[in-house]
Queue: 2 jobs
Job 1
Amino acid sequence: MAIIGIDLGTTNSSCGIWVDDGVKLIPNRLGDLLTPSVVGLDDKNNLSVGRIAKERLISHSDKTVAVFKRLMGTEHKVTLGNKQFTATELSAIVLRSLKEDAENFLGEPVTEAVISVPAYFNDNQRHATKTAGELAGLKVERLINEPTAAAIAYGLHEKQEGTFLILDMGGGTFDVSILEFFEGVMEVHASAGDNFLGGEDFVEAMMNDALNQLKIQKSSLTPQETNQLLMQMETAKRRIGTKEQQTLDLHLGKNHHEFIVTDEWFSKIATPLLLRAKRPIERALNDANMSPQAIDDVVLVGGATRMGIFRSTVGRMFGRLPSCHLDPDCAITMGAAIQAGLKSKDKALSDIVLTDVCPYTLGTDVVNENTNEGGYFLPIIERNSVVPISVTRRLVTAHDNQKQMRIGIYQGENRLVSKNIFLGNLTVDVPPAPAGKEAVDVRYSYDMNGLLEVDVKVESTGKTLNKVIEQSPGSLSPEEKEKSRQR
Ligand code: ADP
Ligand code: MG
């Protein structure tokens, strides 16, 4: 029984396995290493996955869905034909397809997997990913942060030692990590990112600007027209840098429009997005207390790092060209497969130790003692703490004869909880006493998979409560996620 490593991407997914002394990437039933993360219904209402589904995105847009990884961890339902699916269910369909392909390729059952997630995935999103694996019939041995996986691939596969800055821009997410690999030990120094920045955003920005220039309302387009336009912009994006001017023939409404795409135009469109990409890079360097010169190797992974303008922007920041000698599409899969090899206790990997960090601060809400105002954020596990980690903080009652203490659980970097992400709460009864006399010990435990567990113990009564953070209903809008990342 095999354990495979899976990169469950926003745009593309792939899998691999550790064999003897290296990673074998597993082709799907069509012979491709990448399986588009697209799910659809065919004419007989059977599920289709990957390239077959992707090819019908335009012609059957009401029966095809893509980029659902962005909805992971939310209750949002996507309609496909006359059925509704959560992002977890759609991801499970992709995972099941990868599992079947791996079983066919390997000729044995595949029951376990290591699945990669963006470092910035919060608790809800990680739980959703794990659940998706289970729905697909896979025991999810480990969730591995994508940049960590990429660094493992570079560090172990290429047998390089030193400090790496990993930049991973895929279709919908951007992750930055600083890791050090030395004498068999991989240590993560910092990780930062933007969950809402990826290659698709460049395409979207191209489309919006083109529609603006043509004075066409986006809302006036049919889903088919929008998809067709996005496809044309995608193709044009990949041709940028050849210096050739491209003339696109856009069919919108009853009209044909000619639209000229030049490198200069693309550069104007890309600049605000590249500026956004700089922020997490600077934050990671700052958190790791490193200058750009201290980085031995800047590693690019993810399809969107193929953009010439991305490479030159990074090149300017670091004063040298970034590394991309592993295929940017496969580096994460390779790392996940190495982690799977570690799990299956492969001898060639027995000397390797991995550490990882918590990518965000986790804490609770407290009352300011001086002003008696509530809503202040008390960090319990600081961002970039090495995991697994368990931290206990003692909290006391704020009012005389207080009957209950409510422990709000939050994730974020702001000193006000209202600006952070609410993850859940625990309420315990406390015996009446003067303010400050009753105390609870609040323990936050964050594990290797990036999952949070909170225990609360009332000191005087010994009563304990426990919560594994699983969901935060309605609190996961993109704005809120973005908010929690701002310092
Ligand atoms: P994910 O990790 O989100 O599944 P990938 O790493 O597969 O994504 O990257 C997908 C993104 O890479 C898409 O937005 C695609 O447009 C972009 N991409 C792939 N190849 C190129 C290229 N040659 N030039 C520019 N962008 C590219
Ligand atoms: Mg990716």
Job 2
Amino acid sequence: MKKTIKDISVKDKKVIVRCDFNVPLKDGKITDDTRIKAALPTIEYLKEQGAAVILMSHLGRPDGQAKSEYTLEPVSKRLSELLGTDVIFAKSDVVVDNNVKGQAEKLGFGQIMLLENVRFRKEETKNGTDFAKELASLADIFVNDAFGTAHRAHASTAGVADYLPAVSGFLIEKEVEFLGNAVENPARPFVAIMGGAKVGDKISVIRNLLNKVDTLIIGGGMAYTFYKSMGLDIGTSILDKDSVGLASDLLKEADEKNVKMLIPVDVVCGKEFKNDTETVVCKRDEIPSDMMGLDIGPETISLYKEEISKAKTIVWNGPMGVFEMENFAKGTFEIASAMADSEAITVIGGGDSAAAVTQFGLESKMTHISTGGGASLEFLEGKTLPGVAVLEDK
Ligand code: ADP
Ligand code: MG
């Protein structure tokens, strides 16, 4: 277990917090402030405890240069509105300079300031020692609360912890607790559901989960690579050619490990990759040569729902079909609904899966929806995330 801000005293301390304020912007306006809202509990707690709070984040990919379209100034304004208190924006093209150091020194306890986009400095993504030291020089304690970048060893996510005591904020605490417990300490039966476009992206996740789960369910575009490895005709369905051999290895591994591995038994096929295309539902060995599989079929849905109803822990990553098109969203919707209705611990990782759950309005019915796309996948792969590894153990 990692120490959190609740395990240390932050009163009368300067605390530098790595947040994830990487919000979508259009014409300089924030179009979705979910990430800023998600950061509020940690910031408010630190303020109430009497810390001077220095916030930092990246925004977009300015590639190590000060580019005005990537300034965090709009975030500073929105944050101030949400907190109902002043947020001092430390404007600087180099993030930390003498002026910013002075502002940090003068910052009163209970006050909040936000540094400029850390990726204005090219040392950030290279985890440059000098930049990490500059950031650390502003504070007494480092708090990491940016799960979405915790899989990257950058100056503001990992390097800074070389020079300061480091603990997690509430967001990282929650991610580590739910993702970690679900995988390492699951209530059984433990069912993992894997989907999405390509097997190649997720081989390591599947491999790791094969050592942990009782049942592994496959859906989405990756199913066709498994079909191919089973010698089935897949028509014009998406195929990850380089992973056919791996898919058959995974089927073998599942068998050896006594993991029940389920591959879709029927498919909703479409002629073209568009919503209003001609469709046909068929068994997996009857896919027409001029059609592509775009969703799991009704028999597969009931089979998968039955597994879900028996589970005590369910981890889901990757949609069951092309859920962005209404006519091919049913499989993903039915699986998400079954998870929502289940009593099991339900954990969702992956950007598109999380988006699907939100699109269906089922967020509040899940135990945990991970906010970090890449980071949650690396976690499910069993990797240690650098931004978590640097935090002090309890
Ligand atoms: P996540 O972000 O949850 O990890 P992925 O990025 O791996 O998920 O995959 C999501 C994408 O997979 C979606 O855009 C979806 O349309 C696509 N997908 C799912 N099933 C199919 C399919 N049968 N054919 C093509 N694409 C598919
Ligand atoms: Mg994705």
